[in-house]
Specification:
Layout lengths: L25 H20 L13 H13 L1
Helix pairs in contact: 1-2
Length: about 70
């Protein structure tokens, strides 16, 4: 299985992003957490268990996965 690369970076590449911009912007965070939720849903509906390893620092990030868990 090919890893998902939302920002076209290899595992060891440097993004040169600073807090609040590029990879660390609000838009990038939303994109990342939505993709994590989508992948978690796909794996769960295929019959497997999922552990999502993320910081979940903001309430909307936690809520996204709480809602997914309730729905599934």
């Amino acid at each position: 299985m090919t890893p998902v690369r939302l920002f076209a970076l290899t595992a060891r590449a440097r993004s040169h992003s600073t807090p609040g911009e590029k990879l660390y912007s609000a838009a990038s965070s939303k994109r990342t957490y939505r993709e994590l939720a989508h992948l978690a849903e796909c794996v769960c509906t295929a019959g497997y268990r999922v552990i999502v390893d993320a910081a979940f620092l903001q309430k909307w990030q936690r809520r996204l996965f709480q809602d997914l868990a309730r729905r599934l």
